[in-house]
Amino acid sequence: MKKILLFQLFFLGISGAIFAQATGFGIKAGPGLGFQRWNGGSKRDLLSIYHVDAFLDSESTSGNIIYGQLGFHTRGSSSRIGPFEDVNGIYYPARRLKTVFSNVVLEIGAKKLIQTKRFETFYALGVRGEYTSKSKFEFYDELQDWVRKFNYGISIRMGAEWKWNKLTKYGIDLNIAPDISKQIYVPAGIRYYNPITKTTSPGYEQSVRNIAIELSFYIRFLQIIEYDE
Fold first, then answer.
1. Beta strand pairing status for 150-165 and 120-137?
2. What does the angle CA 51 – CA 55 – CA 61 come to, to the nearest 5 degrees?
3. What is the pTM of this model?
4. 3-state SS assignment for residue 23
5. Closest by alpha carbon to 210, among 68, 47, 80?
6. How far is CA 191 from CA 10, 72, 75, 97, 173, in A?
7. Which residues are the signal sequence here (predicted)?
8. CATH code for 2-222?
């Protein structure tokens, strides 16, 4: 708990510094693909995800930008269950089941703009803190008890930006966002019930981390700061 509190205070302090010196702000949103790494031997498929953020940034004359953003992101994965018949002879058709997390995400980072003839490109590196406000399991709902509410990770970004007018720019942003912490952690020895086969299996350690690939479309408004001499 102490580490989580220090982490939150660090984020709030850095974010406050960005807000105080902001030269730009905007909104971004878009689709993505969610992955999950399950070390318990379970294989998971891709999940269609989405996100929306509001952001502030502070740009220097050299093209270096410090940014902060706050938004809503979905995370998770899916599993395809093949057709089968349970112990009572009931037939179940094939279906795809989802594991979805609704996360509030605060991110801070540094971005470098590179000027070209017609537009600017950029790359960026950020750190994220996430709070899970809601989780949905269409399979193994008992994992709700093992969801970790606070998580953190990094964001690796690249993209391009175009000028619309003197005070407005728009762009695209590709983000690869692996988590460092575990969204789910189940210690070894916890037995679990399979609702499909209606059987109980011996428990093994289960550690789940999120990975997201997100594509954002954004609009950025610039504010010109003039200093009195």
1. antiparallel
2. 135
3. 0.81
4. coil
5. 47
6. 38, 33, 26, 21, 43
7. 1-20
8. 2.40.160.20
